[in-house]
Fold each of these.
Amino acid sequence: MSDKNDQEPGNAECGAGAWGRSGAAPPQYKLVPSRARRFPWPLLVLAAAFFVPTVGSRFYTFLANDVVIWALFATSLNLLVGYTGLVSFGHAAYFGIGAYATGLLMKKLGVPFLIAFPAAGVVAGLCALVFGFFCVRLTRIYFAMLTLAFAQIVWAICFKWNEVTGGEQGMPEIPYPSFDWVERLAAVLPFVGGYRTSDYYYFTCLVMVALCIWVLRRIVGSPFGRMLTTIRENAERAEFIGVNVRRYELAAFVIAGIFAGLAGGLFGIFNRGVFPDFAYWTKSSEVLIMTLLGGMGTFWGPAVGALALIWLNQQIVSYTQYWPLILGSILVILLFVFPGGLAGAVIALWRRLQRRPAGA
Amino acid sequence: MPDPSFVFAQSLSGLTAAMFLFLIASGLSLIFGVLRVLNFAHGTFYMLGAYSAFQLVQWIGVGPGRFWLAALGAATAVAILGGLVERFLFRHLYGKEELYQLLFTYALVLILSDCAKIIWGTQQKSVSRPPELTGAFHLFGATIPHYNLFILLLGPAIALAFWFVLQRTRVGRFIRAAALDRETLGALGVNVDGLYTWVFVLASFLGGLGGALIAPMRATTPGMDTEVIVEAFVVVVIGGLGSFWGTFLGALIYGQVLSFGILFFPRFSIFSVFALMAAVLIVRPWGLLGRPLK
């Protein structure tokens, strides 16, 4: 279905985003020269991220942890919005479900993290399967509205079901996973141990998110992922060649739900509490903005968007409390000037730089 | 079974809520019907209407009919804002993807609600009822404030006036035509761009009026915009996106479901309205009185 060459990470699938005009072939250009492209940038970033607690302060570790989790959340949404062309306005539902699943298991039942974390993905995935079954039958605005309705249902349940979810007050004091084994290991091995619990948790998040993003990368590059892009570009034509479009869309919906749930599971522990707000519709638009800021349809864009938005938030909040005003203005500028997001802007800049020596 | 007078009072309170929701949702539905965009900022226009009414009441000071002047002034101010937003910003996104238009209206929510916070702070504001309507009367054992009765009468009156404008006037015909086929209307020599601005002005006026009229009943607080917009979405989805009487019906259903939900299943009242929204979308995505899009 797709040859090896198609799976190279440098072929940025930009150009046509969600609800793109049909028939517009995405331009195949090289974001970075091939020598630089062969360099394992993601691994380098991952390795650098491991040094944040050593080099930076506790605060920077906190920020980095926030970025890492949101990067996974935004990347999961991108599979739906950027690759499949399904605009979900209720992606926070699965984030919230995952957060409650892990939080409930760890706090109320004392289940260890290694079981409670995958459980977030399983529960969120099952909910996404049920909700998605109905959602993929609708198109465009109705799809968006139904995802919103389901997310609000999840929010309403979390908000009112006091016995289980803690209702409006949420569920504070989710315990950290146990890191006793690291201390025991530290007695034997040098250079291990000596960090705070929050640092250990940061390392855990880093490893888990790296694994999740690697899996997502494989999914996007697989024939299945290519088919999702085909559906985004022209669902009708995909139907003609015998693809069961709904089943593919549902699969994408479930996969996106699973990874959003995993991100939520990590976030609940990181946030030291789970609250109904996690599933509220404004959370869904936040993650949508992050995805757009980074660049929809490019694989690494949403992660860059998460980094940019959280870093910017931290910078701006120290000057002014009116962060939403700034965020809204950024969004307006983005929509009018850089509709491709940061990744789109970089690509456009790169093409212009490349064109100049060629024309001369 | 609760006492019948209580049920009566509850259904009246549901009706009052429905009238407000109709005022807000009709503007949302109008914009969707003509421009095919869900305007997230509509809830913010409603909130700005409430704040402007508060501000105008303060400025006017004592005087006869100050509340009515303030309410009209607030709605007009919000209408002008809506028109300006359409003409200078929103217009440039018409050719772009729908997601960008949606996100633009969400950016407006962020910007305008923060501006409201800068101007009016985070303390809740309240407006006193107009002196003519401070009393209450009793009917079947229920106490009905005069103001609520006024709202109950105003809702259908505005619905009829709005319907009259849409059905019987030249502008209304153009609006209906633009909802059906924009290009043909333009080819027939109608200034479609100008029409779109007027649609925005009219819709924002209704939203602002809803906000101004609710100010004496509920406290005006930041965050009321994101709450009400979701309620308005539920209403237009139940009734049918872009359908005028559908919006009215949707508001009535929403009001009754919510107020009886609170009465019988207090824990599930919010849940039930969203479940209703999801059910309508699954069974009849175009709503109870709407028509399928293409």
Note: Residues 63 and 314 of chain A are 8 Å apart (CA to CA).
Amino acid sequence: MELIDWCVLILTITFIVWYGIYKSRGSKNVQDYIKGGGDARWWTIGLSVMATQASAITFLSTPGQAFHDGMGFVQFYFGLPIAMVIICMVFIPIYHRLNVYTAYEYLESRFDRKTRTLTAILFLIQRGLAAGLTIFAPAIILSAVLGWNLTGLTILIGALVIIYTVTGGTKAVSVTHKQQMAVILTGMVSTFFIILHYLPENIGFQSAMEIAGTSGKMDILDFSFDFENRYTLWSGLLGGTFLALSYFGTDQSQVQRYLTGKSVRESQLGMIFNGLLKVPLQFFILLVGVMVFVFYQFNETPLNFNPAATETVLNSEYSEQYQDLIMDHKQLETQKHNLTQNFAEAGMEISEAQKAQFHEKLNGLNSEERDLREKAKMFIDAADKDAESNDKDYVFIHFILNNLPRGIVGLLLAVILCAAMSSTASELNALASTTTIDLYKRSRKSEEDEGHFVKATRWFTLFWGIIAIAFATVADLFDNLIQLVNIIGSIFYGNVLGIFLLAFFVKHVHSNATFTAAFITQILIIGIFLLDIIPYLWLNLLGCAIVMLLALIIEKFSGNSKVTT
Amino acid sequence: MMEKPEKYIWKKSYSLVLIANAVYIVLFYILMKSFA
């Protein structure tokens, strides 16, 4: 890191924190503090929704995913536009009509207080843990690569977010999201063009795409019905719709973004904006990863991009075998670079037959390289089962630090920190709002003024910020933390979505049936998870199906036919 | 079960989102066929 990188990084982050505090000064009532004044326009909502979803791990992981596995991950987002339409048609008009502060508040007007409280608590458990991970995940990668102190970095990210989120509430979160998205887009677009510029003179965009295609990186769509393939067109359309509906429709960290809308129309347009741009944005981030892959066809790469994992294996009994692998990899890369250089130098003079021959040879060498990387992972796992041998999170940051020009490195680090801050801010903001509105305010017997609840929300933001930082600082004590948080999410998310779907679409089901069904479902899902009957990702769908089915059965046998609106 | 009450109003912008995303998928298909 050069001085100019530090300057760019520090100035960008400081400006955003200052801007958040400055633009949100004077929030004195709950409407201002939790709903951001309720005057947000559609572009603010759209950018805020996108910034909330795009965490630091999105920008660290996604290009690495494309580097290793190609563009297929974009299919994961195909269900999102469908979910956006459902949310615009059903969720937003109801939330606005009831003028709620949180999604769970609606459940009391539809069912009763106990259903609202149960759902709010399920959200707090799941999102409270996820907030810690949102800080921890980028911190551990940046500390491994840059040598920065992990605890210090975790506290720094958390503290910066706490400063403007506590001070300005939802408005500060929304206005900083716009700046953060501007930094993120500038950084990613700059990187894309810099990579193209770094390719040899005769390698234009089309040749780069051909090289990527030869190596299987342009297999964007998978029409198969194979359940073993995680990303297919069908899993994207069906599973993606379901997941996006849960996340954008019932998770307060997203609901709070569109509740800030000036009107139903502004909120709807904000979500439409997200539905229009999300797939191209993800496609573009993956394309940056593919261009990093093409760049490395002409330049050296490490055998494994995670420096900590490499160090672990080199200090183990497998050091000698690993060094042999490194030598084999170097020889392979030399062959590959000779081949790609010759291709680049030949330029337009190359015939179609020669081009096909080049692609075949390159494909063979890349296949051999993949095998070497797999062997490297096996040695890392054998050296230390807790070491992160999957290096996809480290590919892009390795590229940034070793290849980008001065100043741009600082900008890209600002991109990663901005993304971490934007997601964390939304999470803390939502956790505090839910704690205040659904638990604290609802349980108060005495009438309090607005200022009291603004103060309470501030304290709860600080409280959840400290919890998130504390969880993030001890997170490396847990094995496979991301999986742990995903498991917790899968255990609760399906049940929560099922409750909301009952509330919106099955009008004859009442509170007691819903609450009993939700309670039984939660126990059943935890039981199914403990007995390891199905992969945990399916618990989402199962939880949603069970709670809806059980509620319908209980309602039928309870004999209560009064219609609730 | 998914009875559609009158209050759920379809807007042109919803069609736009769905059509745009269908077009993206077609473009991805063309891109894949061109380079894969």
Note: Residues 10 and 31 of chain B are 32 Å apart (CA to CA).
